[in-house]
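[Q] Does anyone have a clean structure-token version of this?
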Amino acid sequence: MLQIILAILAFGVLVIVHEFGHFITAKRGGVQVNEFWIGMGPTLLKHEHKGTLYCLKLLPFGGACVMEGEDGESENEHAFGKAKLPRRMLIVCAGALMNFLVGFLIVLAVMQPNGPNGGYIVSTIASVDPASTAAGDLKAGDEILKIDGYHILVRSDFETALSRCGSATHEVTVRREGEKVTLPSVKLEATVTDANGNKRIGITFAELPDSLGMHLSMSVRTAVNYARLVWSSMGMLVSGQVGVDQLAGPVGMAEVMADTAKYSMISFFQLVAFISINLGVMNLLPLPALDGGRLVFLIIEGIRRKPVPPKYEGYVHAAGLMLLLMLMVYVTGQDVLRIFMRSN
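[A] Here you go.
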């Protein structure tokens, strides 16, 4: 039960962080914020301060930042529409940027060395078994940069890249003696038997000692990798490689977070970081009702040198919101159904 509460609160905090990004940027930019909510549902407490009504609501997830003139015309000189275009773009993007920042800070806080000697395993090759199928192409000291065009940011990307291709032969780009070298046909097949009788490719990766610079580098690479995984998942969804029924909503994410918290708090916070970055990426998608959709209209305004009539923009966002709510209802129903099926 404690893990479930922790998961719900963590998810709620990430949404609040997002809304706070909009809030603080709007306030700093002179835009009137009419309301700022923490939570959703019935209001438990409220307090007005300097023209903004602050509300604490019953359900411990969600939130909102309601700006003057955000969804329509307003004659108020501090309305959202009266702010300069770059300022409005920044306000729209600020929520996602806060999610990126918080996600990175969590990664930075929980990042731990993964090597047997207290260092970090990196994508630089320490040795290649003479019996390996890659022995004729790869050698010790090569830093693997790309496999079949997939950038290798962290050590685990090596297996991810191989799994994306059905063939055992790959195009591999390495940094060798300071120069980029592309090897067009490298066979990476598990043919080497280790001491436990398992089949391996026969490549050993180097371990670099832990340091402040290394810790920061690995944190940045991991955070970028999280963002890339989200984009990759979206591509798989659009291409039909995964179905809508495999998506998880808030209920599904809370369940996964609760299960992860039972296993390891480090893993739990890594998941929270991933979800935070996920929220940032998803909100910047150029879809109606999302921050990315609003950004598209601001970009159009910059090109046309005049805004799209609020009435028409409102129609588009209303339609997008309706579709988004329908999707949320569907995935939440799928989440509940999966939980029910497992419990029986």
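[Q] Thanks! Anything notable?
[A] The two ends are 19 Å apart (CA to CA).
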